Amino acid sequence: MDEREGVARLTRVAPPSADAGLGAGLMPPPRAGQEPATRRRSQGPPAAHRRPQSPPAPPPSAVFGPTGVARLTPRSAAAEARARELRQVMGRFATGVTVVTTTHRDTIHGMTANAFLSVSLRPPLVLVSLGRCRMSELLPRSGRYGVSVLACDQERFAAHFSGQRVSEVPPTFVWQGELPLLEGALAHIGCRVVDVHPAGDHVLWIGEVEHLSHRDGEPLLFYRGRFGTLAEVSDREARRS
Ligand SMILES: Cc1cc2nc3c(=O)[nH]c(=O)nc-3n(C[C@H](O)[C@H](O)[C@H](O)COP(=O)(O)O)c2cc1C
Questions:
Q1: How far away, in angstroms, is 201 Cα from ligand 1 center?
Q2: 11 with 109: CB under 8 angstroms?
Q3: Backbone angles phi, psi at 144, to 5 degrees
Q4: For the chain, what is the domain count?
Q5: What is the distance in A from the centroid of ligand 1 to the CA of 130?
Q6: Cα 123-127-93 angle, rounded to 5 deg
Q7: CATH assignment at residue 113
Q8: Which domain holds residue 223?
Q9: Is 235 helix (H, G, I), strand (E, B) or coil?
Q10: pLDDT (tens digit, 9 = 90+) per residue, 81-122?
Q11: Is 74 part of any domain?
Q12: Is 60 inside any structural domain?
C-alpha cells in the first residue's frame, strides 16, 4: 500500500501494471443488453478473418544492432522531436488544474489532469483525456468520475495527485453521493461515463454531468510546465520578455 493511502484512505492504490494501457481495462462498462467489452476485445476476429501466423516484424522505425538493442532511426527520432515540439507548443496553452477522482472498493483514487474540457451543454458533457495510468484501469469499474478545479492555494494537491511528492497536509474530500470531490476546490463536477474514445496514446473519457457546484476564488494555473497564480504567471512572462 502506498503511503498516500494512509489516514484519508487515499489512492494511488498501485502503480500501473505492465500490461495496463489500451487493453481490456480501458473499455467502458457494458451497456444493457451488450456483451462485456472486455470479452469482445479479447476474443478477436473469427478464425476465417485472422491473418496467417508469421514471426512478428520489428517496428519499421527501429533498427536492431548486433546486441539486439534497437536504435532509433531518423524517422522515430523525428517523431520524438515532433512530440517534444507539440508539448512545448501546447505548454503555451494556459490551463487550469483539476484533480479527477473515483472510488475503488473503499479507497479514493485521484489524479491531476489538465486535459479536461467542456464538450456539450445539451446534454451536459465533459471529457478528460487520460494516458496510461491507474485511473484508466479504475474508471471502467466505477463508471463515474469527479473533477475538482483547483484553487490557487491547492498546488500541493496537484503535485500530490501527479505522483511528484506527497502533500504534508492530507487532502480531504466532500461526498456527492458515492463520488468523492476535493474539499476547497473552486468547482466540482460529478459525471457518469457515457462514452470512451481511444485517441493515439490517450483515451477520451466522456462524462455526462450529474452534479455541479462552484465558489468564487482564484484558480491554480499551469503554464509552460509550471504551476502558478494568474499574477505569478504574468510576472514570469513579463520578466522573460
Ligand atoms: C499539471 C498536470 C497535468 C496533468 N494532466 C494529465 C492529463 O490530463 N491526463 C493524464 O493522463 N495525465 C496527466 N498528468 C499526469 C498524471 O497526473 C500522472 O501521470 C499521475 O501520476 C497519474 O496517476 P495514476 O496513474 O495514479 O492514475 C498531469 C500531471 C500534471 C502535473
A1: 13
A2: yes
A3: -145, 150
A4: 1
A5: 7
A6: 125
A7: 2.30.110.10
A8: 96-240
A9: helix
A10: 999 999 999 999 999 999 999 999 999 999 999 999 999 999
A11: no
A12: no
Q: Measured between alpha carbons, how far is 181 from 171 in angstroms, rounded to an integer?
A: 10
b vs e for 32-45, b when ≥16 Cβ sit within 10 Å of the residue's Cβ? eeeeebeeeeeeee
In which element (H, E) is residue 43 found?
helix 37-43
For atom 5 of ligand 1, which residue has the closest CA?
Answer: 113
CB 97 less than 6 A from any atom of ligand 1? yes
In a domain, 170, yes or no: yes
d(CA 117, CA 149): 11
Q: What is the DSSP letter of 151?
A: B
44-63 pLDDT, tens digit per residue, is 333 333 444 544 544 444 44
Only one residue has cell 494511488, namely: 12
Task: Say if 182 falls within a structural domain.
Answer: yes
- The protein residue whose alpha carbon is closest to atom 21 in ligand 1 is 162
- Give me the count of residues in the chain: 241
Ranges of the chain with pLDDT below 70: 1-75
SS (H, E, C) the chain: CCHHHCCCCECCCCCCCCCCCCCHHHCCCCCCCCCCHHHHHHHCCCHHHCCCCCCCCCCCCEEECCCCCEEECHHHHHHHHHHHHHHHHHCCCCEECEEEEEEECCEEEEEEECCEEEEECCCCEEEEEECCCHHHHHHHHHCEEEEEECEHHHHHHHHHCCCCCCCCCCCCEEEECCEEEECCCCEEEEEEEEEEEEECCEEEEEEEEEEEEECCCCECEEECCEEECHHHHHHHHHHHC
What pLDDT, on a 0 to 100 scale, did the predictor assign at position 72?
60
Q: Distance, CA 112 to ligand 1 centroid (Å)?
A: 5
